[in-house]
Amino acid sequence: MSVKGRTGRRAVPVADHIFTRSRDLFVGLIASVITIAYGLSFAALIFAPPLNTWLAYGIAATFIAGAISAAFVAVRSSIPFAIAAPDGATSAVTATLAATVAERLIEAGPPDDLIAPVMIVVAIATALTGILLFGLGLARAGGAIRFIPYPVIGGFLSATGWPAMHSFTQIKYAAEEAGVRLVLVNPSNELRSAFRARGFITEDVTLATDLDRALETCEEEVIAAHSAGGGGAGSLRDWLTRALGSAEFAEALSELCERLEVDKGQVIARQGEPAGSMHFILEGRVGIIVEMDDGRTIRVRSLGPHTTIGEMGLISRQMRSATIQAEVPSVLYELTAEAYERLKRENSALAQALLTYTVRVMAERLSFASRVIGVLRR
């Protein structure tokens, strides 16, 4: 069995006809799903604050307009496979128009129904644009586009970047309301200029050269906020009593440690050197820095008071895997390898308590590393 084509000149097998129609239906379904996604995203773009209250109306209007334009193109287009869908560039321009109208209305005194005048202006602009394009098509004057000045075309294309700048501005406002400080990591010179022109980069916005410096800045702010008014760090014996669970153990271990006072930037231990001691941080803060094969250095973590460093190297007697550098003036207590060996020989109970504490510290750091890896994989 066969089916005649529109002209009646050629017979098409039924199987081929069904296959062609099924393929067209499948392609149409895919185009519909994509169009729905575009419609939702463009409606959210156009009806951003202060028009977000009417987002439901915006979604409905976008779907209705998309359906009408798609049906018109499908029926009237001279190209059989033509599919109409919302366009990103025009949606960005529409979003700019809607936001500008809303801002002007709010400045003049917000009306009871903000959506009505905005939709009227958008509808008029859309209708005028359609009439212009329709007239150019009837007159076969599409070539007139070459007479449009480049600044006009550039302004149209630059409007597509407006939503990004608008989103950044909304983020800045939200951060200010929440009392949060923004940190920008290595923005390009062009982006910095654009942000400054929009007033986005101010004194309360921090610029960092890389992610490591940005994290360091955030850590310093958090530490400073939590340490303000917190008093002294206490004594080594008090800390070790809590860590080891015994004042006697704390007294004995304190006598084996040597007090070190280091300045900011001073290297306490260097990567690649033999691990001959571990350190107890009583005051200040130190950074753990890894030197890469290409010469770069990465600060992987900062450690503050009442924690230890170098315990793995002391126990395993391997080369140090990272450099330890003071980030602020700090006070540490050093337990050398010789003192640790004497401790194991003369006080096995204290050695066991110290080993148990070290295992707890290593478990906490392993858990921290696992969480970091999980975040980086997202």
What fraction, in percent, of the residue positions are helical?
55-70%
Radius of gyration: 34 Å
| Anisotropy-based shape | elongated
- Tally of strands: 12
Per DSSP, the total helix count is 13
Indicate the mean pLDDT.
77
Low-confidence blocks of residues: 228-233
Strand arrangement, major sheet: 5-12-7-10
Structural class based on helices, strands and sheet pairing: alpha+beta
For the sheet with most strands, the description reads: 4 strands, antiparallel
Please report the distance between the alpha carbons of the first and last residues: 56 Å
The tally of domains stands at: 2
Compressed to H and E, one letter per element, the order equals: EEHHHHHHEHEHHHEEEEEEHEEHH
Using brief descriptors, characterize the structure shown.
single chain; 378 residues; alpha+beta; Jelly Rolls; 2 domains; 4-stranded antiparallel sheet; 13 helices; 57% helix; elongated
Descriptive notes:
- This protein has 378 residues and is an alpha+beta fold.
- The protein folds into 2 domains: 2-147, no CATH class; 236-376, Jelly Rolls, CATH 2.60.120.10.
- Helix content is 57%, strand content 15%.
- It contains 13 helices and 12 strands.
- The strands form 4 sheets. The protein has a 4-stranded antiparallel β-sheet.
- The longest helix has 33 residues, at 14-46.
- The two termini are 56 Å apart.
